[in-house]
Amino acid sequence: MSSTSLAPKSVEELKALLENDIKVKVAVDGVLRGKFMSKDKFLSAVQGGGFGFCSVIFGWDMHDTVYSNELLISNRGNGYRDILAEIDLSTFRRVPWENNVPFFLLSFLDPETRKPICADPRGVLKKTCDRAEAKGWHCYAGCEYEYFQFKETADSVAEKKFTDLQPLTAGMHGYSLLRTQLNNDYFHAIFDETAKFEVPLEGHHTETGPGVYETALAYTAALRMADNALLFKFAAKSIGMKYGVIPSFMAKPWGNLPGCSGHIHVSLRDSNGKSLFAVSESELKTGREGATNDDVKFLSQEGEWFLAGVLDGLPDIMPALVPTINGYKRLVGGEAFWAPNAVTYGYDSRAASVRVLSPPSVPPSATRLEVRVLGADMNPYFALSAIFSLGMRGIEKKLQLPGPPIGQLSVEDKRNGKIQMLPQSLEAATKRMMRPESIAREESVLGSDFVDHFGGTRQHEVKLWNEAVTNWEVERYLELV
C-alpha cells in the first residue's frame, strides 16, 4: 500500500498536523459519500479503532433508492444497523478547493468480527493486494479516464430534463492545443488542483468528441491508484462546479459518438521493484524461448500466465468492470470506436480487450497489460481486484492463452464462434457472473459473498431499466404500432 506524502505515522503526529483545524472530512468509496466531523470526534474515533456509520450506504443505489433485494450488509431486518468505519490515516490529504480541510478515506468492518465486509470497495482490493504480497508480489496500476464535459450546472440539467445539453466545446478535436484555450483556466485547474490534492496526473489533453478530455493518472501501487482514481472524479466534478462545467463519466452519453473509456494498466512487481512481467536482459534480443507467439515473446512466462488468467475469467467478471446499463452501449458494435467486446489480446493493439505493452514499444521496466474493456463508469476498486485476482489465478494454474492474438483474427471469427464474445448487456453479464460455476465465485477471485451482494445490486439496476419507458420507445411506437 502506498501512502500520501502527508500521511502521519502516529497519533501524536496526526494531532500536530491537525493543530490548526477544527473539522475533518471523511469519505466512503464508490459514489463518494461522506461527512464532516469535529476534530475531537475524529481523534476519538482514530484512537478508539473506528466509529459507527449507517450501513444503508451499502443498501441503496446512487440515487438513494433501497435495493430491490434485501442484501446481506444492510436491510430492514437488522434495522440498517451501524457498521464500523475505520479511518485510514495513510490516505490523509487536504482538499485545496475547500479551504484545505483535512480529508481521509474510510474502510468498513463488521462490528462483531472486525473483519472487512464483502461489499466494501477498499476492503475488496486490500484483500487482493494482501494475497499478492503473501506471494512476494506487489500490485501496481494506472487508470485513464475519458469524459465528456458540458457547460451546465446541476440545476440547468434538471430544468432541461437532461436533454439538449451544451458541450464544453464544439467538434471532434483530439489532442487539440486550440480547444484547451477556450477553457484555459478550467483545463489547467484540473491538473494543478489534483496535484495539490495528491492525485498526480501523467497526461491531460483533449480527446475526440465535443468537450471531451482524457486524463491519465500517475502509475502507482494498486490501492493508492484506486483511491486516486475515485478522488480524481471528485476533484474534476468539484473544480467543474467552480467554472460552471459538469464533467460526465457516463460511458456512452451519445449514441453516434465514441464512448468514454476507463482503461486500466496493471503489472506485478517483486520485492525489489522489478516488473514480474519483464523478460530478462538476454531475452531482449530475440524474445523469450517458449513464448506462445510473437505477440507475447517479450512478456515473461509469469506475464503470459497472468494474461491468460485475465482472458480466461474476463466474461465472468464483467459487472465488476462494466457496472452500468449504459456501459454496455459502448461495447455493442464497439469496433467502430476501439471499444473491444470479445476475449482478445494483442501486442500494442488498441483493438484488443487486453493490450500487451512490452519491448520494443516500452522499456522492460514498463512492461504491463492494459485492460481496455472498461468504461469511465467503472468502480476502480472492484475492477482492479477482479483483474489482479484473475491474473494471479492464471499464474497459479499456469493457464494457456485461449487462442491466437487479435492480429490473426477477423470479424468473421466472431460470427463463427472462434472468438468468445463478452456479455452485451448488464443483465446478461450479471447472470453469467452469478452462475454457480462462475470463476468470479472462486474464493481466490471475488468470492461468493461479494458476487451475491454486488450481483444483487446489479439485478436492481436491471430491474429499474426494464421498468423504464424511454424517449426512444415513445418516438418509435407511440403513433405507428
TrEMBL record:
Source organism: Irpex rosettiformis
The organism's place on the tree of life at top rank: Eukaryota
Protein name stated in the entry: Uncharacterized protein
